[in-house]
Amino acid sequence: MSVKTFLLPDLGEGLTEAELVKWLVAVGDTVVIDQPIAEVETAKSMVEVPSPYAGTVHELHGAEGQMMLVDAPLFSVLEEGAVAPAAPAAEPKSGIPEREVAQSYREEERAGAKAPASEGSGNVLIGYGTPEGLSAKARKRRPRTDAGTAPATASGVPAAAPRRAPLVISPLVRKLARDHGIDIATLNGSGAGGLVLRSDIEAAAAATTAAPVARTAAPDVEPVRAAAPASAAEGSIDARSGLGISTRTPINGVRKTIAQAMSRSRSEIPEATVWVEVDATNLVRMRSAMKGTDPENTPGLLAFIARFVVAGLQKYPALNSRIEHNAQGEAEIVGFEGINLGIAAQTERGLMVPSIRNAQQLSARGLNAELARLTEVTRSGKATVAELTSGTFTLNNYGVFGVDGSAAIINYPEVAILGVGRIIDKPWVVDGELAVRKVTELTLAFDHRVCDGATAAGFLRFVADAMENPASVLADL
Questions:
Q1: DSSP per-residue string spanning 379-448
Q2: What is the radius of gyration, based on Cα positions, of the chain?
Q3: 448 among known catalytic residues
Q4: Domain ranges (residues) in the chain
Q5: Prior bond to 85 cis, omega within 30?
Q6: Rounded to the nearest 5 degrees, what angle is found at the Cα of 383, between the Cα atoms of 379 and 384?
Q7: What dotted CATH number matches 175-210?
Q8: Which terminus of the chain, N or C, has fewer Cβ atoms within 10 Å?
Q9: Contact yes or no for 422/414 (Cβ under 8 A)
Q10: Do residues 372 and 306 make contact, with C-beta atoms less than 8 angstroms apart?
Q11: Cα–Cα distance between 400 and 283 in angstroms, integer?
Q12: Pick from 104, 105, 73: which is nearest to 89 by CA?
């Protein structure tokens, strides 16, 4: 075909949708293989999607801000030297719709198939790659025999027809069928040659749910109607409050992931909270003295606190763990040999928690450098999925927002989170005398299934003592 359509690829982690944030090309632009053509935001991170084809952009199949499903058409490219079709392109020779051809193409890539060098570079984006050397011969499908004709036995009596394999090539269609409990082999696909499409699964699912609803609904009960689109609902009156509705914002992307994780944390984790006020005067003074002699290499206060937290987790490893279920369904507390310290960071895309891998191997200066790097890549949307999902304990500095404390929600599936409030001047008793000191509040929320209050209090007191007497603690780290 002269026009090639590229489908939104699987971007990893089993994600099924992404928001089209920005087009980097326009219709009529010339593109080369691996040139970024769009920015999309998944529930994990922002990524650039490169083109597996070279040619002229023929069509963009989505608008900026639109949610795009995996395997949905993303853009079409007119190959170099080809002439744009004056009318809608005819079906491929194989008889399979172009949408499914493109899906098949992606499946061949993921299976390790090869294609001519002119059609792809072999580069990989999380879950897909452009092919490197698939010959035309290798791409040919073996002809299918008529599924309705049963082979005859030696005696001439027709044998029972074997159960044919379902005609489906899209992994998304297979997943949709599993989610609805539908056996694909029982469906007659509406696609060419009986190919099972997404619409077939949706129709089958609707048919299985419509019958029970029809049987149980009372005749005088008005059936439930689908919610109106957000654009139509804006400007209407809210029945509950009587106020006009000004906006409706879909919960998707990163915000959807945050909402799901927080809901799961609250519903599954029996958390408890302990807190303590800390005199951080000596820590502030020590850092000020260091900055006076070596301003370029002096760690920030958060880096020092992070170092104390890491030392505390090494002493109280129960807080650096995770609860999982084994093959028998029994709960287990899983401990780790290292510490991936997550740092909560507020960004324009929501609250993100990138983690410092093997933080126990770093000094305060090393932690400071990683803090700066992770903050930058996270706020720019360039943090990797691994950096955003590999934490084993979270440190949250909400003091930068001018608050003293917070009833923090544990970052599921971790088992604890430590919050640090603002450092402010407060009256404090020192050696029996009233003095003005630099005081902050530490708050620890922990999963009561992995430890009791004594462990949580011991860890919190360790970090507090380290902040109050930093020089003596750092001498042993």
A1: HTT---HHHHH--SEEEE-GGGGT-S---PPP-TT-SEEEEE---EEEEEEETTEEEEEEEEEEEEEEET
A2: 29
A3: yes
A4: 3-139, 175-210, 254-474
A5: no
A6: 165
A7: 4.10.320
A8: C
A9: no
A10: no
A11: 17
A12: 73
Q: How far apart are CA 311 and CA 473, in angstroms?
A: 9
Instruction: Spot the catalytic one: 61, 180, 325, 448.
Output: 448
Please give the single-letter amino acid code of residue 195: L
Q: How far apart are CA 97 and CA 200, in angstroms?
A: 14
Indicate whether this model's pTM tops 0.85.
no
Task: Measure the CA–CA gap between 246 and 233, rounded to whole angstroms.
Answer: 9
Q: Using DSSP, state whether 279 is helix, strand or coil.
A: strand
Give the right CATH number for 254-474 from 3.30.559.10, 3.40.50.150, 3.40.50.1370, 3.40.50.10490. Answer: 3.30.559.10
Ranges assigned E (strand) in 64-177: 67-69, 73-79, 124-125, 128-129
pLDDT digits (tens, 9 = 90+) for 349-364: 778 899 999 999 999 9
**Whole-number Å distance between alpha carbons of 333 and 439:** 35
Q: How many Å apart are CA 285 and CA 409, to the nearest integer?
A: 32
Contact (CB, 8 A) for 232 and 248 = no
Total residue length of the chain:
477
pLDDT in tens, 279-328: 999 999 999 999 999 888 999 999 999 999 999 999 999 999 999 988 88
At position 257, the amino acid (one-letter code) is T
CB 456 within 8 A of CB 319: yes
| CATH code, residues 3-139 | 2.40.50.100
